[in-house]
Amino acid sequence: MQRCIKVICLLYFVNPVNLTTSEAFLSHCLNQRGPEILWIKFMDVYLTVLILSATLPLSHLNNEKQLLQFREMIKCTLPNSSPLQDFGDYGCFCGLGGQGTPVDQLDQCCFTHDHCYGNASNYDSCDSFLDNPYTNIYDFKCNKNTKTITCLASNNACEMFICQCDKTAAECFAQAPYNTSNNQLSNSLCSSASRENLSFINILTILTLLYSKIQSH
Question: pTM of the full predicted structure?
Answer without folding.
Answer: 0.60
